[in-house]
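Hi P.,

Sorry for the delay on this. The queue was packed all week, but I finally got your sequence through. Input first:
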Amino acid sequence: MKVFLPLNVRIDDKKILFVGGGNIAMHKIQTVELYTGNITVIAPEIHDDLKKKGFELVYKEYEEKDLDGFFLVYAATDNIEVNRRIKRDAAARGLMVNVVDNRELSDFISPAIIKEGEMTIAVSSNGQNVKKTVALRNRLRQMLKKKE
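Then the structure:
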């Protein structure tokens, strides 16, 4: 069984790579962009909404050398074999990878978050029950709104 340690990682001045430019990547980027705009997306095709955000966009198929210079990597393609290759290549370089929607292959997972100014509340089920995690996050968000 995979066990994940909740922690906050310093990412100022760190480059974050997303391999994949579709809906899967778009969903994860929505959280990451709350903390940094230093995001590069590599994919042959990139979601129209991502094109408007000012990230570095590279239109191409993934190659191992694409990992050069990155701190964190998100494998967010819809191809499990490509995601596995990204994971293997990154592991060989000592890079941590989130294989989106596959906790067994991931070095880290992203919690459901609430971000208000400098405050962040993160909710996680250790990657085992995403629906329950999101539901609890949404309940907490509602509770906070009632107290305002």
